[in-house]
């Protein structure tokens, strides 16, 4: 079902996690082009550096590819897989690196699932699972790409695509997660969240 996508319709896989965490944060990054670093983003970036270079290696017979570009023409999404392991005689196994301790978060798992869906299309195979590696605890937790997770992931891809197509910025919703968000100075959730309730506004009007 390969489709022809316009450039502004291709969903960055990283946008899936951002959108599920906060649609406004995602649009600030991917529509308005805003990024502000704080201690959390800096720590995550430094920890992530180990998989930021595209290279292949073989360790005890296990082929590993870091910073592997992935895409899906069928679903109009593209991005970079932090790590993909290719066990002999077994399906490819994507691993996404995340800051923090071991925990199960839908936004992280949906992003990983999207990578799995891309690998399935690219390699004409089935990718049933992957893992999230938590930099703080240095542990993995396995994520099964269930039908429910796949459906939710692809629904989010379409939600993000609609925002990209229309060049829109969701209104702010002020809540506890805003306190540590690096984009808070640009978002102004205390102000914009009260002034615009549940509407979409263009970045230049925010």
Helix-strand blueprint:
Blueprint: E1 11-12, H1 13-21, H2 23-30, H3 39-48, E2 55-59, E3 62-72, E4 77-86, E5 93-98, H4 106-123, E6 129-134, E7 139-144, H5 147-166, E8 169-170, H6 184-187, H7 189-195, E9 200-201
Parallel strand pairs: 1-4, 5-6
Antiparallel strand pairs: 2-3, 3-4, 4-5, 6-7, 8-9
Structural class: alpha+beta
For the record, the CATH architecture stands as Alpha-Beta Complex
- Give helix % range: 25-40%
Into which percentage range does the β-strand content fall? 15-25%
Number of strands: 9
| CATH class group | Alpha Beta
Rg to the nearest angstrom?
A: 18 Å
**CATH topology-level fold name:** Lambda Exonuclease, Chain A
- Major beta-sheet overview: 7 strands, mixed
Tell me, rounded to a whole number, the average pLDDT.
Answer: 86
Number of self-contained structural domains: 1
Number of helical segments with 4 or more residues: 7
Defining key terms:
alpha+beta, 9 strands, 24% strand, 37% helix, seven-stranded mixed sheet, Lambda Exonuclease, Chain A, 206 residues
Plain-language structure description:
With 206 residues, the protein is α+β, with helices and mostly antiparallel strands. It has seven helices and nine strands. It has helices at residues 13-21, 23-30, 39-48, 106-123, 147-166, 184-187, 189-195; strands spanning 11-12, 55-59, 62-72, 77-86, 93-98, 129-134, 139-144, 169-170, 200-201. The strands form two sheets. Strands 1, 2, 3, 4, 5, 6 and 7 form a seven-stranded mixed beta sheet that branches. It has a two-stranded antiparallel ribbon with strand order 8-9. It is globular.
């Amino acid at each position: 079902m390969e489709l022809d996508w316009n450039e502004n319709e291709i969903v960055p896989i990283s946008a899936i996690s951002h959108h599920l965490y906060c649609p406004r944060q995602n649009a600030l990054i991917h529509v308005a082009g805003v990024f502000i670093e704080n201690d959390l983003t800096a720590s995550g970036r430094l920890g992530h550096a180990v998989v930021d270079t595209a290279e292949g290696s073989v360790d005890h017979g296990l082929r590993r590819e870091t910073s592997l570009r992935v895409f899906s023409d069928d679903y109009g999404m593209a991005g970079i897989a932090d790590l993909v392991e290719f066990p002999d005689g077994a399906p490819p196994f994507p691993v996404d690196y995340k800051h923090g301790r071991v925990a199960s978060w839908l936004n992280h798992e949906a992003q990983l699932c999207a990578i799995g869906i891309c690998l399935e299309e690219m390699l004409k195979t089935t990718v049933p699972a992957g893992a999230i590696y938590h930099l703080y605890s240095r542990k993995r937790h396995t994520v099964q790409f269930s039908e429910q997770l796949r459906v939710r992931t692809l629904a989010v891809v379409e939600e993000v695509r609609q925002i990209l197509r229309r060049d829109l910025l969701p209104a702010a919703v002020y809540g506890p997660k805003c306190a540590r968000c690096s984009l808070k100075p640009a978002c102004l959730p205390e102000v914009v969240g009260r002034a615009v309730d549940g509407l979409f506004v263009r970045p230049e009007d925010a």
